[in-house]
UniProtKB/TrEMBL annotation:
Catalytic activity field: dTTP + H2O = dTMP + diphosphate + H(+); UTP + H2O = UMP + diphosphate + H(+)
One record GO biological process: nucleotide metabolic process
Organism from which the protein derives: Paenimyroides tangerinum
Predominant localisation class: cytoplasm
Gene this protein is translated from: maf
Upper lineage: Bacteria, Pseudomonadati, Bacteroidota, Flavobacteriia, Flavobacteriales
Keywords from the named record: Cytoplasm, Hydrolase, Nucleotide metabolism
CDD domains: Maf
HAMAP family given in the database record: Maf (MF_00528)
Protein name: dTTP/UTP pyrophosphatase
The EC number(s) this enzyme carries: 3.6.1.9
GO annotation, cellular component aspect: cytoplasm
Family statement: Belongs to the Maf family. YhdE subfamily.
Enzyme class: hydrolase
Places the protein is found: Cytoplasm
Pfam family, one: Maf
Length: 194
């Protein structure tokens, strides 16, 4: 089991995301938070999961002096809609346009995770299909004004009000949409440590 394999290890989460921190806490793991200051730009020719793979690995590569017992977890999540990346909105108007583009459609949430120790690196990703029902302009504005989703890719948090009233269907990992594919991470970590 994971807890046994981690007994003499020091786990590092390279993210300031409160949601990712909460997931690891809920899993009962002890960890330290050390955000990666890696450059998150990527080559223009990359698409889809190639982008999150590239950035998650760049975040892991930032950690060059890991101790024998240290394992770092890095991650990157993006929302992919009709061949376009929907990043974090810069203002209310942009948030409105992003959410409106998701209304009554299915989009993909892609997360890549990189596990790194002193001697090896392992990269994997997860893709979840999220379908929104038709959202009214009033509902979209209510969400933006009350939940201010400016720190979230795709301008929404599925765990918030809009997820409760707007998400019609999910195919794949729910926790992936929140920011970290936990079931996959759990099993990949066990394999990584053996």
């Amino acid at each position: 089991m994971l807890h046994k394999l981690l007994e003499d290890k020091k786990l590092i989460l390279a993210s300031n995301s409160p949601r990712r921190k909460q997931f690891l806490t809920d899993l009962g793991l002890s960890f330290e938070v050390k955000p990666s200051n890696a450059d998150e730009s990527y080559p223009e020719n990359l698409i889809h999961s190639q982008i999150t793979d590239y950035i998650a690995k760049a975040k892991a590569d930032f950690f060059i002096d890991l101790a024998e017992n240290e394992i770092v977890i890095t991650s990157d999540t993006l929302v992919w809609n009709n061949g376009i990346i929907l990043g974090k909105p810069e203002n209310k108007e942009q948030a409105f346009q992003i959410i409106k583009s998701l209304s009554n459609k299915t989009h993909e949430v892609i997360s890549s995770v990189c596990l790194k120790s002193k001697h090896k690196t392992h990269l994997f990703n997860a893709i979840t299909f999220v379908t929104f029902s038709e959202l009214t302009e009033e509902e979209i504005w209510y969400y933006i004004e009350n939940y201010k989703p400016f720190d979230k890719a795709g301008a929404y948090g599925i765990q918030e009000w809009i997820g409760l009233i707007g998400v019609k269907e999910i195919k794949g990992s729910y926790t992936n949409v929140v920011g970290l594919p936990m079931e996959k991470l759990y099993h990949e970590l066990i394999e990584f440590l053996q």
